[in-house]
């Protein structure tokens, strides 16, 4: 019987891991399986561009089936329901058709080694009305939903002003959470709004868009140095974004946000990007240690604390080094580094060798304000610790992060080819995706 390595979750870390395992172990004595609830992969840091219409996800998404055929792993479509550690099997939830009818019943997949890389979901902190009235940006379907809703409201305003030019009509967007996702989305919306007049909405431009960015903390972008956060704050306000720090949302309603101070913030579209936590399914992992934020606690080898055959990586795992004050943050660079450690440790377990210890190396943070600006900081020996970046250099480094991701999941040859194709698409494809 083949040794079966099962990876649940095809995000940045999970997809890189199965590519490397499949390429290394092949399908002779080992069976590498990816279980994922989506058919395609899109790099999560790009979802704000998909939502604003600046990126056509059809050009950048990766089909798991073809990718698995290329790299020697098998893809199972489905979502995790539970884990039976004694029997070493995972339960895959029933797959339903759009009308609710069952296509494939609940089934089981055995494992010798299991890796849980299911990512994170938005944390609404129990705020009233968020689930019912806010949009999220956790996957492509949600990004597509936001884009269609945005375009419908832009069309409404354009039509209103065409019929009655004297009418003051606007599209109001409220974004809760001024981390990287909220800030990048706010800037990208103004980039898209400025281009809509070239795509049939002649009387619509960025002056018809009003974006409010709401942050409970004292400033935006807490992961960046204060000087860079201030620079980004000024850039956002120059675009027209209303930035509200120290503002706690008490309730989300059908017409906007109600703050703890009683302020009413009107919005046609409300987006919640205020925090992340592990998916609720992690509470059903047969006695594994789970934190208050629904993350799996792991050892320095990234094995779960109560089962050496189960690893966790990415946003869904909680790891705090004794030398650090805070746990590893939920970033793409952390998932990439964790995938490398888990890859080597699975091979070490098979070969009965000592396991590697995971050491997180913070390479810094970069935040793109669309075509308007990019700010961030890099950390490393070459710059003597930390170096602040702004402008074109920061933009070049920001773009290089996605190129590194392409190489990680496709290999060097195809990765470089896709980078070249991306440059061509920037010239020949429309600037916005409007459908």
Q: What's a quick, concise take on this entry?
A:
This protein is α/β, with parallel strands linked by helices and 435 residues long. Helix 10 (391-410) packs across helix 11. The radius of gyration is 22 Å and the shape is globular.
Architecture overview:
It is a single chain. The chain has helices spanning 12-25, 47-52, 57-60, 64-71, 130-133, 140-163, 180-195, 226-239, 332-351, 391-410, 412-428, and strands at residues 3-8, 30-36, 40-41, 62-63, 74-77, 80-84, 89-92, 95-96, 102-104, 107-110, 113-116, 121-122, 171-176, 209-214, 242-244, 249-253, 256-259, 264-266, 269-272, 276-277, 296-297, 303-304, 307-312, 317-318, 364-369, 373-380, 385-390. The protein is an alpha/beta fold and 435 residues long. The longest helix has 24 residues, at 140-163. The radius of gyration is 22 Å and the shape is globular. The strands form nine sheets. Strands 5-2-1-11-23-22 form a six-stranded mixed sheet. It folds into three domains: 3-120 and 278-351, FAD/NAD(P)-binding domain; 130-272, FAD/NAD(P)-binding domain; 364-428, no CATH class. It contains eleven helices and 27 strands. The model is unreliable at 380-385 (pLDDT under 50).
